[in-house]
Amino acid sequence: MPSSKATDAAPTSSALSAATAASAEPVHKRSKTRRAIQRTKRLDIRLKRVYDAPDPADGQRVLADRLWPRGLAKAKANIDFWAKDVTPSTALRQWFHQHPEQFDEFRQRFLDELALLDADRNAMLADLRERLATGPVTLLTAAHRLEDDDTHTHLHVLRDFLESH
Question: Where is the composition biased (Low complexity) (predicted)?
Fold first, then answer.
């Protein structure tokens, strides 16, 4: 006599597809939630002078100056990436050096330049974003008095741009 347990234990194909569909839905919802969390996660971007000693907490050290810092040997710089294309253009940099009191105007002009780079899918900007996705990044500059609260540099603008896009 055939056992009723064998027929009762074997699920039908419709029962399998219903169970698969039910378990697939929460996975899909979880992946959407995970992506939303990743988008809202604040990036770990630090600002530092390139002449300051490296720290293990720096993560990847990215030089964000168009010109190489004076007196700093490339072999001793401890720089992981030189992002010179995501810095203010030469004309904008020179204008700001002549008008340091007009930081708000400089900020807007630099944001406009960054938006154009972003629209053109700039490879250096994409590389910088990939580095930010993997952990902390310290943006480095040769600018003086970076640590002063009232001092503003292009690094402040670049950090704000990266965090908002």
Answer: 1-24
pLDDT in tens, 84-133: 999 999 999 999 989 988 999 999 999 999 999 998 888 999 999 999 99
Q: What span, in angstroms and rounded, lies between the C-alpha atoms of 112 and 143?
A: 22
Task: Give the neighbor-by-neighbor strand order of the sheet with 81-82.
Answer: 45-49, 137-141, 60-63, 81-82
pLDDT in tens, 27-45: 444 444 444 434 445 789 9
DSSP label at residue 113:
H
User: Structure pTM?
Assistant: 0.71
CA–CA separation, 7 and 147 (whole Å): 75
Structure-block tokens of residue 44: 């770990």
User: How many Å is the Cα radius of gyration of the chain?
Assistant: 25
The CA distances from residue 37 to 33, 34, 80, 101, 103, in Å, are 6, 5, 28, 38, 33
